[in-house]
Amino acid sequence: MNLGNELRRCRKQKNLTLKAVAEKAGVSEGFLSQVENNVKSPSVETLMSIGQALSVDVGGLLSRLQNQEKVFVFHTDEWREVDMPHTGFATRRLSPPENRAVIDSAVLFIEPGKSLPVRKDIKNGQEVLCVLDGRIELRHGDKVFHLKKHDAAHFWAEPKAQAIANTGKKLAVVLWVGTM
User: Fold this and answer.
1) CA distance 122 to 162
2) Where is the signal peptide (predicted)?
3) How would residue 69 be classed by pLDDT, with cut points 50, 70 and 90?
């Protein structure tokens, strides 16, 4: 259990939309989505507002999180719970921002015809992709690699000369790991 997952679980348990909770908490829908996906960490004040919008005891929630296991598991039956924003891709981080000083990891959901933005300000970083479902295209320098379900790639990050896109006809699900 981590903060983002727990907030999402509370929201879905109460059948609330991202938009409804965001409006009530006074934050943008995009920011709330990033908090739920462990891309951003809210300030204490913002967390209190989100907790009020969800009618959740934030103190109890943080206490449960403090006593959590140090392993994050993202089951395939949770994949369908991912909210796809207008950008056509979603990132479900496997660890909160404060645990990403050396390595980062996520499950990426990419709609057909959509691509991911490149990580910026990465020097000497490495990345690993493993296609869990669907098809993607990896452009790296002047080379193009087509990856399908169960294919994997390991490469040095080239932010100015790389792209990852879904070239298939269905949602692509990709495990991504990168050094910082």
Assistant:
1) 12
2) none
3) low
Q: Would 71 be classed as within a structural domain?
A: no
* Same-domain status, 97 and 173: yes
Rounded to two decimals, the pTM is 0.63
Instruction: Return the residue matching tokens 């080239």.
Output: 158
Rounded to whole angstroms, the Cα distance separating 75 from 110 reads 18
Residue 39, classed as helix, strand or coil, is coil
Q: In this model, does residue 120 exceed pLDDT 90? A: no
H/E stretch holding 36: helix 29-36
Q: What share of the chain is helix, strand, coil (3-state, %, to 5)?
A: 30, 30, 40
Residue 111 falls inside a structural domain:
yes
Q: What CATH number did the domain enclosing 41 receive? A: 1.10.260.40
pLDDT tens, residue by residue, 3-34: 888 898 889 889 999 999 999 999 999 999 99
At 25, the amino acid letter reads A
Q: Are 179 and 103 in contact (CB under 8 A)?
A: yes
- Among all chains, which residue has been given the structure tokens 């087509």? 146
